[in-house]
Amino acid sequence: MPPEKGLKMRKVVIPIGPQHPALKEPESFNVTLSGERIMAFSARLGYNHRGIEKACEERTYVQDVYLVERICGICSHTHSTSFTQAVEELAALDVPKRALYIRVIIGELERIHSHLLWLGIAGHEVGFDTLLMYSWRDREVVMDILAELTGNRVNYGINVIGGVKRDLEGHHIKDISKAVDTLEERTKYYIDIATKETTLIQRLSGVGKLPHEDALSLGATGPTARASNVARDIRQDDPYAVYSELGFRIVTDNHNDVYGRTLVRLGELMETYRLIRAAVNNLPEGPIAVKAPRKIPEGEVFSRYEAPRGENVHYIKSNGTDKPERVKVRAPTLANVQTVARMLEDEQLADLPIVIAAIDPCFSCTDRMITVKDPDDSNPRGIIKWDDIRSYSIGLYRSRGVDFSLLNKKLAEKLKC
Amino acid sequence: MIRPGKMIKQVLQSLFMKPATLLYPFKKSPMPEHFRGEIIFHPELCIGCQMCVRDCPSRAIKIKKTEDNKFEAEIDLGKCIYCAQCVMSCPKKALESTKEFELAVLDKSKLKIIFSADPKKSSDSQKTP
Q1: Which chain A residues are Cβ-neighbours of B101 within 8 angstroms?
Q2: Which of A47, A265, A383, B48 has the CA that lies 20 to 30 A from A374?
Q3: Nearest chain B Cα to A323, which residue?
């Protein structure tokens, strides 16, 4: 219930994270509250930075495929496909059709596992743990299929530059069809629940509103945007692999809230089953990989991929050697995290977990390099020495009233003893 | 019709169902066909081309020449990410992925496995099939 007019509450700022029992990954949120109502919300990323982009520059293209695959644990195939696509474009490789079909099949199976995982987490965040148990049990079906096809449940390692590592055989195709049939039946049941179960509808409806215009202006991607009726999907806008042959249909919804995002993801699951069936039925014969050169010709390339969470972008600059000069990754959560502040405006504090979970955030994917801008602009190249960064941070904390010099002295004395 | 308790039938049904989980470690689910587990090395096949060393993303493998045409491999399982790129890179199939995944040890030094050309010296002789 909104507070009565004239009743003034003191503003309270609650820091959540970076270390917090309710958070699965380290990230920091500052929530300004008036009573139970959220007045302002700010997110700070950067606690999970692993230096993957820099590490990519130190390794060869062959090694980088495995490194970028480990950016994300849930959508690892999206990163490795995006990366290999980019390198193949630079090297002007003609990747066999069969390899592209296999990539699509694995990518779509991964989408099933990611969306079922999200459904479970969403259920858990609103206290509907039965849904968590059921959707995660069904997720095992697709995980087993992925293990059967690629060898492992996560980090499939199926992509190589120039194609894929493992071929699909007759019994694999039978297994996929069987699993897709089971999952389709289960998903129909979940759609039935989502449209008929009052507790779920009432809990999710009207929570985390993101109007169509805001979704466009904040640059939301993936199911977050599609639930605000933004018909944007890389699989249709800029088809990669063989999506143009499979006939893809965008799933959108105009609820603009968490309920809409649930419906979009469930609808996408149904579309994914159709895509997998189409890909399996049209699987062409032929080789699964071409030999790739070790040295990639000079050039720049930009590769887009529709990950389960939204648009995933890889930029690669090559200088003609066997190592890339620059690799830049933009994971979908970075595009979506800004929308959370808009979604939480004037919402209840209790809605915070589900609203954050509704964008399906993956913070470790998002944590990339931070650029420190020189305020005087005397240093146009933006290179800051280690000592300068140190004195800058000391100054910053002093201006906030935190002085570490006493602590440092004590520490030095202790170290002497 | 919109009504609460849509899942209640399913919940009651599952009271009489077998558990979805396995009693690990007493029962183990079989590993998939292409599973990428512990890497083993066949010294007799190695030609010392160092391709595996060059392609390893985590620099976990080292090949040393002990005698003429005899090579030994040192694999650091703590560094290995089990991507099996070395198995792919090897032109002579001297490296192989096994289905072994229970690799936890209490002593960190045991993670370094030396596959010697001389079978007596090998620290992993009992594991090699």
Answers
A1: none
A2: A47
A3: B55
Whether the CB-CB separation of A308 and A110 falls below 8 Å is answered with yes
Q: Are residues A279 and A409 in the same domain?
A: no
Full 3-state SS string of A162-216: CEECCCCCHHHHHHHHHHHHHHHHHHHHHHHHHHHEHHHHHHHCCCCCCCHHHHH
- The answer to whether the CB atoms of A134 and B56 lie below 8 A apart is no
**In a structure prediction context, what are the per-residue pLDDT tens digits for chain A, which is 417 residues long?**
555 555 567 889 999 878 887 777 888 899 999 888 999 998 888 888 888 988 999 899 999 999 999 998 888 999 999 999 999 999 999 999 999 999 999 999 999 999 999 999 999 999 999 899 999 999 999 999 999 999 888 899 899 999 999 999 899 999 999 999 999 999 999 999 888 888 889 999 999 999 999 999 998 999 999 999 999 999 998 898 899 999 889 999 999 999 999 999 999 999 999 999 999 999 999 999 999 999 999 999 999 999 999 999 999 999 999 999 999 999 999 889 889 999 998 899 999 989 999 999 888 888 876 565 655 666 555 666 777 778 887 888 788 777 777 777 888 887 776
Q: Is residue B16 part of a domain?
A: no
Number of domains chain A contains: 2
Are the beta carbons of B7 and A193 separated by less than 8 Å? Answer: yes
Chain B partners of A131 at a C-beta cutoff of 8 Å? 7
Instruction: Tell me if residue A252 falls in helix, strand or coil.
Output: coil
B3 touches chain A (CB under 8 A): yes
Q: Report yes or no on B86 lying in a domain.
A: yes
What residues 29-58 of chain B have any CB closer than 8 A to a CB of chain A? 32-36, 54-57
Cα–Cα distance measured from residue B46 to residue B67, given in angstroms and rounded to the nearest whole number = 12
Q: What is the predicted ipTM?
A: 0.85
The alpha-carbon gap from A297 to the nearest alpha carbon of chain B, in Å, equals: 19
